[in-house]
Amino acid sequence: MTHVRTTETLTDDEASAVIALAEEAGAHDGVAPLSEQTLLRIRHGARPGTARFHLAAEPLPSADPTGASDGARTRLVGFAFAARTAGEPDSAELVVAPAWRRRGHGAALLSSLSGDAPPAGLRVWAHGRSEGAVALARSAGWTQVRGLLKMRLRLRGGPAEAQRPGAGAALPEPVLSEAVGERVVVRTFRPGADEQAWLAANAAAFSDHPEQGGLTLEDLREREGEDWFDPEGFFVAEDTATGAIAGFHWTKVHADGAGLADEPVGEVYVVGIAPEWRRTGLGRALTLVGLRHLHERGLPWVLLYVDEENRAAVRLYESLGFSVWDADVMYAAL
Prior knowledge:
334 residues; 10 helices; 30% helix
């Protein structure tokens, strides 16, 4: 019988076991089961009242099929995380160890998440449209309420390099209109100086997306402390009249290839434009600035995530040669 324990904090040993389980599942499935934000909460903890960790354990028989020692009493077989924002449904993810699937652990974790959810309810992300995730959602009577497209662009090494805009060849020059060019300067992010200006721009750009727009200085500092953080790949457009950030393009490099290659690949990590600067061409120009940076690093691929309902952004990325590769799906009860 699956035992699920719910807690707001993890011990160091528990955090290590969860990360090991996630890495095992990612290697098996070809897609990371937990988002970066969840991994940060596992490693660094969360502010009180903002997160719930669900740990599924299974008693081990004397002959454990996973190879754990006979002296171990239980094994972590599944994990779920729920991010909590006042007045909003919990936003959750879950993963079950490959060797322990099809034994009801996913259903037990989903039940635990549902039972622990606030009155506003629960939404659960599934990374990739896997058969297991679809089957679990269907068995629970859940339906898709949001989709996040995963798009990719080949920067080098493909047979169609010269046939798509920007694929494997020099990307178009980022061009600003004369009116915009007179008002902004594009430069790289300055750690220790730009944090507050960037947080203000990010909050304004993503006011309707609390997951991104609600990032705090602590959240930003955590990302600055990650091994992948590189200010040389973090571009901001500064309004020279006010010093405010009008827009930004933060790129990221995945050392593990992110399921696309056996070498590092790039990501359009986040592009944000302040409301008053939208429809000026600044977003396209900043996107190209970041893509050219990743191309100049010699990376074979670049990926990005975009809400499938954001048709303007999807059209922009398609015009640059991106195509849909996979999708993350958010499910909720009917």
